[in-house]
Amino acid sequence: MTVAVWLMISAVVLPASYFAWSVISIDRASGRLIQTRLTAVAARRTGDATEAPSRLATLGRDLTPAAYVARLDRLLANAGRPASMPLDRLLTLKPLAALGGALVGIMLGAARSPQGAFLAFGLTAACYFLPDLLTYNNGTKRQARIRLDLPNVLDQLLISVEAGLGFEAAVARVGTSGRGPLAEELVRTLQDIQAGRTRREAYKALAARSTVPELKSFVAAIIQADVQGLSIARVLKPQAEQMRTKRRLRAEEKAMKLPVAVVFPLLLFIFPPLFIVILGPAVINAISTFSGR
User: Fold this and answer.
1) 149-246: which CATH topology?
2) Rounded to whole angstroms, how far apart are CA atoms 30 and 25?
3) Where are the domain boundaries for CATH 1.20.81 in the chain?
4) pTM of the prediction?
């Protein structure tokens, strides 16, 4: 029994320790982060690896299908590629989490019921796909924040361009002075241009890193204006108006859905206690009257 307890504790502590180490090892120095991103862009262009992956990361990549690796990379791109969880570390963490889930499932169910194998399999699958779910959730929140910030960013770009700044200078000003994921994406786009990418490739990469249709439409308009030599201000103004209109329509749509969403909590949690308080004494009096007490 003591060995089983130690195995169970190890199955929980080892993945948790690895995750804690992943969080603690975040490089919070902005200058070093920018340098790392620039180095990564240069490495992708030249085909040279700047850092050899660990054996566990190599093993995890070999055991994972290529299509699934591409899907994980897409999820990380939507989540902003957090420094605490690169792709190789995610591929390493998933098998370790699955192993921990399998051990816990075996310890909890194998010796007590014939369904222990199903419990172990369920915990293994849940622990294996839990990092995917967390990454997807972070990516969804990030894309929602980008959609929310896009109208304000377009207004700031329009004001800067109309004030006489060039488009790249306006993007740099908005990106460095702003906060949030959209400002980070603008800064990264400028870094791609500085690293040697063409403007068209950099903005296409910006659209590819996001799932927001409005941002993709804005990037397509900017690329088209660059190809045809149109004024950026003439492109930004209708784009900004369109984004503001869409944001207002989304707010109105949510407001119209609110009464429907409130109905179920009212029926389940508000009306029953209210009826008990109002009708309870009357029911008690009626029962007392008809029972002759």
Assistant:
1) Receptor-associated Protein (1.20.81)
2) 14
3) 149-246
4) 0.68
